[in-house]
Amino acid sequence: MTTRPKIAMVLAAGLGKRMRPITDTRPKPLVRISGKALLDWSLDSLARAGVDKAIVNVHYFPEQIVAHVAARRAPRVVISDESERLLDSAGGIVHALPELGGAPFYIVNSDTFWIDSGVPNLARLALAWDAAKMDILLMLADLQSATGHSGGTDFLMAPDGALRRSRGDPTGLIYAGAAIAHPRLFSDAPAGPHSLNAYFDAAIAAGRLYGMVMHGHWITVGTPDAIPLAEAAVATALAEPPGTLAELTSPFTELK
């Protein structure tokens, strides 16, 4: 991809039920890790990747998120209001399509984040993107590079980056909550609530779902007791030296 995406969809409308009681009074994207709101970890990564506009969907305590992002200039934030009806991951994207435009765009979850090692992972994702053969390109993490993940793996990756479901295979990879998608994928999408997982499966069936293994450390914070673990992981990751040049310039990592 010669030009990086300039627009991103940030999924920030979830209820954060597992984060209670903290989320009794605030939305999960505003939970702070190492002094920074989860939402700002996502938006700062997008700013480093050169994104000009981020569409942030809101539903739970929407006024708090609107107030929080009001002063941001990079990227410029546009609010996609779902306060009347929660639309789930894909439904939120479909609702925001008029703002997302006709070019490939980033999708970023606001409740997970990562510490880059070397070249920013979103920049690497753009370099790995190939619209001729991909509908979606996922950023992936291995289990050893993750903190706070309590589930299994999501995908197995072929040497060329093509993905299939891992079905619990421990050698698989985790979806790291960031992707590039082409808007054509949603051209016939329904308007109501539905999940991105259906689009992942459709892309697998068409041979058009690909992945890229991130460099650095991926962090997810599902419950209040995971916060100190996340903050310790941030401190450790920031203290680590960057990877080698060979690691930083390879967009795909083959699974042995």
From TrEMBL:
Q: Which InterPro entries does the record cross-reference, listed alphabetically?
A: GlmU-like, MobA-like_NTP_Trfase, Nucleotide-diphossugar_trans
Q: Which GO terms describe its molecular function?
A: nucleotidyltransferase activity
**The EC number(s) this enzyme carries:** 2.7.7.99
List, for all copies, the residue spans of the domain called MobA-like NTP transferase. 8-136
Q: Which domain of life is it from?
A: Bacteria
- Keywords linked to the UniProt accession: Magnesium, Nucleotidyltransferase, Transferase
One matching Pfam family is NTP_transf_3
The protein's name in its UniProt record: N-acetylmuramate alpha-1-phosphate uridylyltransferase
Q: Which organism is it from?
A: Mesorhizobium ventifaucium
The gene behind this protein is murU
